[in-house]
């Protein structure tokens, strides 16, 4: 079946019927994941498609019927679809080219993914290959991760590059930003236009290659979900190709920040990236920026795979599997790729252009819910406590943050470990002797900085311990900067 063409033949008010109906029956990420037996909706796998259909067939709920129709692409007869959605909504979706009659049954040509509080149409994720020209890809782990960790508070001008379905441009617009989206695939922009209408926001679309369509413009937030799979195959579609190293597009994105990111602005990019011997990925990002001052560079790393395991995860459905696998693996080994990491890259342009760069890689548990407030706090802590000019307010009375339950120290008090709160998304890190001692001295949160410092002979050691705790989000309330 040919890729569908969505028609903007309905108003936002008419399309709101779809929002309301799916919301009423619980068409949400967690509910769908539970129905289909997955930890998260982003883990849907074409090989398990029969299992998903089986689960929906056994479940008599309206949610199961909606998932079968809108997410799994299962056909149903008109009376059942009308009973599920209502005649008015069926009429709207037919007019938009979403629901069509096919061989005596109704089918949804695109699929509908929920993400946080919004809905997004994409092309079918089952039964179409990744090399289908013009295909707009489903929401996967990369799309959901970027949406769940990207802060958008107080953003006035936002840019989303490699926009695909328009997901991230639409979230920025919903947060109040003047939002622009760029993609090299014309069908992606058509989906972005329709999804913006569906979610009641305005997005300015540009057909073009990365920053070429926004020359001379600057933004408070730039998001990107670029092509990133290292591929030796020269026949990969242009909107899928990131070159043999997988870094051709990400490098261009980072290199363009000096021209397009406002001071204080944030760049957020989700990708898989190769790890090599020698130069770290943070050092590589800094090299692409071309500056050792004025930038904060952070990565949240979700998981890491060997080249062989990574390649196997990206070659499902390839006819010449053995030959293709060997070509990919030999290419990775020739390039010196030791492993592949899945991470979100954050780059903040510091207000002080002369401040030295700071760099941090943080291991993170996979987010199956929104972590936007927590990530925003974490980034603010990095920017604050890594600033060499920062000094604490002498009257500040710090205490252990609710991000942690308690402090454990070893028998000799030479190190400590913070026990995470149940909802903490960061993986624990040990504290050194000075950090553990300072945190112990703070209890029960009634001593000011000036009082705490009196028991320390070395002011520099005190400040370093305080910074170390702050960087870990271990202190509350958040410290104001004292120049």
Strand residue percentage:
15-25%
How many H/I helices?
A: 18
Structural class: alpha/beta
Indicate the low-confidence ranges by residue numbers: none
Helix content: 25-40%
CATH architecture label of the largest domain: 3-Layer(aba) Sandwich
Radius of gyration using CA atoms only: 25 Å
User: How many structural domains can be distinguished in the coordinates?
Assistant: 3
Separation of the first and last Cα atoms: 64 Å
Give average pLDDT, whole number.
91
Classified in CATH, the superfamily of the largest domain is: Vaccinia Virus protein VP39
Q: Strand count, sense and closure of the main sheet? A: 8 strands, mixed
Extended strand count: 17
What is the CATH class designation of the largest domain? Alpha Beta
Read across the widest sheet, the strand sequence of neighbours is 7-6-5-8-9-11-10-12
């Amino acid at each position: 079946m040919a890729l569908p063409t969505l028609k903007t033949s309905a108003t936002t008010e008419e399309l709101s019927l779809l929002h309301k109906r799916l919301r009423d029956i619980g068409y949400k990420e967690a509910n769908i994941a539970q129905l289909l037996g997955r930890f998260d909706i982003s883990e849907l796998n074409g090989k398990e498609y029969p299992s998903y259909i089986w689960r929906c067939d056994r479940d008599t709920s309206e949610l199961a019927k909606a998932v079968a129709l809108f997410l799994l692409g299962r056909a149903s007869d008109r009376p059942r679809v009308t009973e599920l959605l209502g005649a008015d909504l069926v009429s709207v979706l037919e007019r938009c080219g979403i629901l069509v009659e096919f061989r005596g049954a109704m089918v949804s040509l695109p699929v509908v993914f929920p993400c946080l509080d919004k809905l997004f149409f994409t092309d079918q994720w089952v039964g179409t290959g990744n090399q289908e020209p013009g295909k707009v890809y489903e929401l996967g782990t990369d799309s959901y991760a970027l949406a769940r960790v990207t802060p958008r508070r107080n953003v006035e001008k936002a840019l989303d590059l490699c926009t695909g379905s328009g997901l991230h441009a639409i979230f920025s617009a919903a947060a109040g930003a003047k939002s622009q989206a760029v993609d090299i695939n014309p069908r992606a922009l058509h989906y972005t236009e329709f999804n913006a209408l569906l979610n009641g926001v305005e997005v300015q679309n540009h057909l073009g290659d990365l920053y070429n369509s926004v020359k001379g413009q600057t933004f408070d937030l730039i998001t990107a979900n670029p092509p990133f799979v290292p591929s030796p195959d020269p026949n990969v579609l242009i909107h899928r190709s990131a070159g043999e190293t997988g870094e051709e597009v990400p490098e261009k994105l980072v290199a363009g920040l000096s021209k397009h990111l406002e001071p204080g602005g944030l760049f957020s990019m989700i990708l898989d990236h190769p790890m090599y011997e020698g130069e770290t990925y943070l050092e590589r990002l800094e090299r692409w920026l071309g500056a050792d001052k004025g930038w904060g560079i952070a990565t949240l790393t979700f998981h890491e795979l060997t080249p062989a395991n990574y390649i196997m995860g990206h070659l499902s459905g390839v006819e010449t599997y053995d030959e293709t696998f060997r070509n990919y693996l030999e290419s990775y080994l020739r390039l010196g790729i030791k492993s592949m990491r899945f991470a979100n890259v954050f780059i903040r342009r510091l207000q002080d252009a002369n401040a030295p760069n700071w760099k941090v890689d943080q291991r993170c548990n996979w987010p199956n819910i929104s972590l936007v407030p927590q990530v925003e706090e974490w980034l603010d802590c990095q920017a604050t406590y890594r600033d060499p000019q920062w000094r604490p307010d002498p009257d500040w009375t710090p205490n252990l943050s609710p991000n942690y339950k308690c402090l454990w120290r070893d028998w000799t008090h030479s190190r400590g470990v913070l026990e995470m709160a149940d909802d903490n998304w960061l993986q624990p890190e040990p504290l050194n002797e000075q950090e553990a001692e300072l945190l112990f001295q703070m209890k029960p949160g009634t001593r000011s900085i000036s009082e705490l410092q009196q028991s320390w002979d070395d002011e520099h050691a005190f400040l370093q311990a305080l910074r170390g705790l702050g960087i870990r989000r271990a202190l509350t309330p958040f410290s104001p900067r004292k120049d």
